[in-house]
TrEMBL record, chains A, B, C:
EC number from the UniProt entry: 3.2.1.23
UniProt domain Beta-galactosidase trimerisation: residue ranges: 397-582
Taxonomy of the source species: Bacteria, Pseudomonadati, Pseudomonadota, Alphaproteobacteria, Parvularculales
MF-aspect GO terms: beta-galactosidase activity; metal ion binding
Name of the protein in its database record: Beta-galactosidase
Length: 642, 642, 642
């Protein structure tokens, strides 16, 4: 477990470099990430390289004992490269080339760009692959940021045709899989297939689904090309790429297989307005972030690969609609929470706030005048606390199944305003965490033996492996409505929903309805359901019904299935029952408090804007290693469990 | 009066066909509509036809005594046709060609497409025109769905120039009619006229108005070309086209003149979110639909031609923002209501839910697994009730004048956020129905003798014939504000508003104001006005004024004119007075209840989510032929009037 | 001080001209503005001019002793000109040419269009420059209306490159000024720079800032070309251009230097929905307009040049979302208010309402049938009151600094949903007016000696001259948060915010946060802050803190600086204290009442929808020259101060 920082030596006078490195080392940082937007400084003219500044920056860091994570600069192809080739720019969904002047303007399907991506990667890998300080590499930066996974360019169209041809072999198989007999959409060859944008009304959902999959695959193959080159010159280096929050445009389980560590960029305040929280929660958590956002992504990405945070929000950012200051202590809380969830390291973005360009209002560890900002002092605290933490990874009793393919299916066909596969999953995660549970978020096909409870919030499609794992686990399984409603092409399965889940619980979804906000129902004495409701044929008596008599929850043995999407309160009620059966904690935590086992301790994190007292049952007064029973706002406590 | 269903044999294994037909016949259906999206199955390669599957489908139906409505497949030109011609695709208002991959991607002004439309129509008409089962033809499908009446293509521009030249002869006449001296918009020839989209600020409203009229005319001539060919090969067939709800982009009175029956597609739940109802009514009628939506369209299209419903919503659909399940019984209610309003038939969309492609979440009479769904059972009930119904068409005492040209004028120049000519008309219709009246919705120029009350909600322009008919009828006439405010070019008439209505009521609109929601006024002890207010010069004393002393209603003899747009409650108050004068029923019905005479009976339909009791005065307890005095939610009662 | 009217003789039968002129003269008008959209009538074919109608129109006016303001018609290039040149049309931010069919479709960077602009200007100036009636000229019309200052055409791109080259000389200087090392945006030559639209995410704010400045400069040079020609042929004429409300796309201080009088177009009801007022204020002032809108713009434009209103709203307009009627008396109030603020003249738009084309629902002084409308009668009243008014310009004790460059900086980087530099300035203006003060709105670099109070609401960047003037004035200075946070390139200044203001008040802004609506704080017993908060390092004790202990206001000697954006109530509280210190009035006026010294009198204007009584302390009962102590809605009173 280490600490790091993102650093842009090219932004600053060269003579500032040695002092910067000294201060980093003194602070207790172990590494700096550099280079990932610096193509133009590295290659100011076609083929003319200038690496002196980068050599010196690496030397400065190395001299202070810092390691270096070096980024390939392919997120920002320079203007001269764009001007020499008219087939590099991505096209947006409106059918327009995306102009130069910011970043991420390239198309993953551009063969020309791939050639230059490999070239600059090889130049860098050759030069720095053997450098003792350069122990880590990052490919590109934030694949997909600014809606860039899916490009609608002619290059993308041609590559999509090739991808379809490779997948289906015969166009008749594609026509069959997509149901193209509908609306005369039958193709006679793969070369007749267009991209699904700009149609008169919505394109075939199977068409979109394959386009989403293709687009994700293009990202993977772009990444793999760089990885192969880096491995050649730096066989022992750790390779990573940095993922984002609430972002599902490519399959992160696929990426997890192609990196040594999956890093991600955690902006708890910036993401608050982008997530699903309503206005009252947004105001309550304005300067802390949603209490489950960071945890959800830590556990999600931990399910993809070893994980870490490479960009930790240090203060106000510049890109959310509003950009508040974190409460004092929140940066420390976020850093410790990352480590508690098993993060390999936590790294702040960025070292020193830039006084110019797009991100000039984005805080750093230092202010533009080099004075320390809040993140500097709070990271200093964490650095001192590192010695209290072990490398132990805790095991979880709860698994939550999550799948990008299913999210794509619900994105493409929401069918109602209130159903979002990602947010449903996060809601279920939050309910489990509200009861104090540690949660593993796992992909389809995971072996589920050893878990006490398995949650299946929003798997529209289940693979055969998943169905088998659910059948063979001893765990209690709790399933959301709409699960199993799709086959692998995004179509209705033979025998209707819930498809393979029928082997766990004997019911058939005869039809489903969606309703707007305010039109759900309530279970007497409990919370309500919203958005989605399945009408089931079954011999089972419902466990719960709403006040209009509509079944809300069925149960058969160890398997429960909601027939209507539970609001968080209702779900928490039921999980409390299931957890209690499984011998787990089943008490609701105070509002804003979250627990997590890790680093040999059990942690409590207070996201509430008020002080919170830890339940006595959790630990004895003398067990605290960090903090104590009373947590102020932004407070962290940790104790050793016996 | 018959029942039918929409059917897509091309979606299913051929061997399922005979059983499907058997089940339809057993259910009491009289016909199936088929073929209207099946161009690619009929002509999989240019010029190579495959009609075997369609021959067989027709034989299957014929064998069971079912008639066939055959649709031309021109709503879905196949990909190979698009690829061979670059002048088929429609262009959207943003100036982009609309891509292949869904439906309705063609431009009505494409001469190339018209040639292929005539070709495929002739091929089909030749083959099936003489088939004894094929008694009905539908042209294309839902002209204008997905904003496709108005195309902004070069083909449309050229055709528009020709249309203008034919209309005006001399460009000076166009300049005069449009007032092009304003802002230097004078043209020197018709070839200088562009389409009105993408201008720096709004284009001339007269320019838009003629473009709207031209676009409607293009639909008519496209339709007429197919009709002429079908008539040639099937002179005795009934020809129809299917209209939609809340849709005004082409003139349905024009279409009425070109069909034998005007069918329409009734989706009461799907249309709820698209209509003008506020959130509380939307929640109340979520699973029933707005109580006046279907009736309004039945009566509107009955004013265009003999009418029927060809697509009746059978359950949840896939295309509204949220898609709830109808209350049990609603499909039956909607079917019976169609017949009560004089519908020639009612037909469910569709036979079996497709498990693939865009509409896979759209219910059918059967589920994808061929099990009967709710619509199957409810249609079964109706089939058994058909024998109770006669073919008698009832006559109405109330006429409501409606005009597409006037709706276009208010769409083009709303002048305020709260005025929509279509919704104003529907509001007035609803007020009359709330009092139990049957209503004829009639076009301009209709002979109005014989009516007791004539409503003129939103005729911005009145033709000379309409003005004359209003003068000569004995009926009480109730007129909305803004009526008569436009001449035939959409300009202010000589002598100002209300133009020719001044001959009915002696007032002049000196100026008009529009106000946002919440800024209207109230008539003491009654409801209020909203959105639009005319300030009138007149010697008349106002009948009603608002609390600020502003005149709201004037009356001269049998003519009343609102000077401010009445909210529904206020209007209902006044109509109750007028109806009472005319010796008609003037009591408000319980909320959600609607009455209608037809089929030799008087019907009551309960759209309320609660049970409703029919007023005793309506009928005696022993008069009920269907149902009784108490109507459950979705209940229907009918009795014979003596 | 005179009255005038906007007049379009080309819209009307020639024989109506003499009577129109007679009625204008009889009404007491001194001039008519004509010609500014009449290019096509003047030059119906390329090179064929028809000036007979215009000659006659001018003669008609001249015969009645009216002067003429003649407009160049370049806002509306005719179709034949567009068709002959493909490089005239402006392009919108989406990258599309803006079509012919309305107005303002030309690009300021089109050399072709400039040539024709100069040509038509010269033709007109030659013909009418020496005419004794033509004493005033207007260039073009409403530069920038419909988002037309900023064009994204190839012509604009090329001109922008030239402008950058002229400004920076060396591309390295541009790279340095913009911070292009960020995200590899370094350019090798000016020809690599693109326009900042359509980038994948936001372009560099310095890039935008220079593009905004360039676009403003293009307007100025377009205007200057016309001015130079007019001056040549009409050396004594007054030259003007008409500005708009709430419009900041070009620098009006620059324009002020290029005109003799800066006129503007005042639409108090039309602007209500466009301004920052919330719904309850919008409803309260629906038929009067915001009480500070007109005054703010009068004083803003008076700070640019001698000012006047050339287009005064006469009744409902056609272009706002809703278009109510002004209360009776409001047109008179608006006209008198213009004169009281020092306006050289007030002129109504337009003489007679047009019955056709885009503005047919826009009221005039006459109705389309030539009957007088409300504005006719109310202007008649004002004409009779003119003799009571002197030409004296009153001096103000309060200066408010306003700067277009700073508004652009906050437009480009709002950083929060609640900060808008223009609206912040208007809010501060309103607080001072609420206390009865007259306010000068002055540009950067103004000599501030002689003022008692100087307000600096939203100067993100301060020039050296401004900083010096603030240091040397004796006035009390009240500064808003965020002031001084930018250098001249829109970057963070050395030493951080408040930059040069640190010499007035010893504090440093360590960081700033923005918060959404509802997340501000309150000062105990007073109002609150919202949107923006600076966290300061300083030895000063805060004067005010909010209930969470956060500093809200600092003061050092005569300089105060808010650390959080005060809501209007809180600001008014503090200004009352400052005004009292300065020996000025410090009482809040009744809601809706505004005062203003001018024309030798002190005026009171009642914008409230209810009657208002003037405080006794303001004047004695026998001092009234116009009105009296009690002002009805729309009432005006004026008295002589002793």
């Amino acid at each position: 477990m280490t600490l790091g920082v993102c650093y842009y030596p090219e932004h600053w006078a060269p003579e500032m470099g040695p002092e910067d490195a000294k201060r980093m080392a003194r602070l207790g940082l172990s590494f700096a990430r550099i280079g990932e937007f610096a193509w133009a400084p590295m290659e100011p003219e076609p083929g003319r390289y200038e690496f002196g500044w980068l050599d010196q920056a690496i030397e400065n860091l190395h001299a202070e004992g810092l390691e270096v994570m070096l980024g390939t600069p392919t997120a920002t192809p320079p203007k001269w490269l764009i001007d020499r080739h008219d087939d590099i720019l991505a096209w947006d969904e409106e059918g327009r080339a995306r102009g130069f002047g910011s970043r991420r303007h390239y198309c993953f399907s551009s063969e020309t760009y791939r050639e230059h991506s490999r070239r600059i990667t090889e130049v860098m890998a050759k030069r720095y692959g053997g450098h003792p300080a350069v122990t880590m590499w990052q490919t590109d930066n934030e694949f997909g940021c600014h809606e860039t996974v899916r490009s609608y360019s002619p290059m993308a169209r041609d590559a999509f045709r090739g991808w379809l041809s490779a997948k289906y072999g015969d166009v008749a198989a594609l026509n069959e899989a997509w149901g193209n007999v509908f609306w005369s959409m039958l193709y006679r060859s793969f070369d007749e297939v267009e991209l699904p944008n700009l149609t008169a009304t919505e394109a075939n959902p199977s068409h979109w689904l394959d386009f989403y999959r293709f687009s994700s695959d293009q990202v993977m193959s772009f990444h793999r090309e760089q990885v192969a080159i880096i491995r050649q010159y730096a066989p022992d280096a750790m390779i990573t790429h940095n993922a984002m929050g609430y972002f599902t445009h490519y399959d992160h389980h696929d990426l997890g297989a192609e990196v040594d560590v999956l890093t991600w960029d955690s902006y708890p305040l910036g993401f608050l307005a982008q997530g699903p929280e309503d206005q009252s929660r947004t105001l309550r958590y304005l300067r802390q972030g949603d209490p489950d956002m960071a945890g959800f992504h830590h556990d999600l990405y931990r399910g993809c690969a070893p994980f870490a945070v490479i960009e930790q929000q240090p203060g106000p950012v510049n890109w959310a609609p509003d950009n508040p200051s974190p409460l004092p202590g929140m940066v420390r809380l976020w850093e410790l929470e990352c480590l508690a969830h098993g993060g390999r390291f936590s790294s702040v973005f960025r070292w020193r706030q830039a006084p110019f360009a797009q991100e000039q209002n984005h805080a750093g560890m230092l202010r533009p005048d080099s004075e320390p900002a809040a993140a500097f002092h709070e990271t200093d605290e964490v650095a001192k606390e590192l010695s209290l933490l072990s490398d132990d990874l805790a095991s979880s009793k709860v698994a939550l199944l999550f799948d990008y393919d299913s999210v794509w299916m619900s994105d493409i066909q929401p069918q109602g305003t209130g159903y979002d596969g990602l947010y449903v999953a996060k809601d279920w995660y939050a309910a489990a965490r509200k009861l104090g549970a540690d949660v593993d978020i796992v992909p389809q096909g995971t072996d589920l033996s050893g878990y006490a409870v398995v949650l299946v919030p929003s798997l529209l499609h289940l693979t055969a492996e998943t169905a088998e794992a659910l059948k063979t686990t001893e765990a209690r399984v709790v399933i959301g409505p709409r699960c199993g409603s799709k086959d692998e092409n995004g179509n209705i399965p033979d025998g209707l929903a819930p498809g393979p889940l029928r082997e766990l619980i004997p019911l058939t979804v005869a039809r489903s309805e969606t309703v707007p906000e305010g039109a759900g129902g309530a279970v007497a004495g409990r919370g309500g359901w919203k958005a989605w409701r399945d009408e089931c044929e079954t011999a089972l008596d419902p466990l719960w019904t709403d006040e209009a008599g509509r079944p809300v929850l069925y149960r058969e043995g160890r398997t429960s299935m909601f027939a209507a999407l539970p609001e968080r309160e209702l779900l928490t009620d039921y999980l409390a029952e299931v957890f209690a059966e499984a011998g787990m904690d089943a008490e609701r935590l105070p509002a804003g408090l979250r627990l997590r086992r890790g680093c040999g301790l059990r942690f409590a994190f207070n996201y509430a804007p008020e002080a919170v007292r830890l339940p006595d049952a959790l630990c004895s007064d003398d067990a605290f290693v960090i903090g104590g029973r009373e947590l102020p706002p932004a407070g962290v406590s940790a104790w050793r469990e016996t």
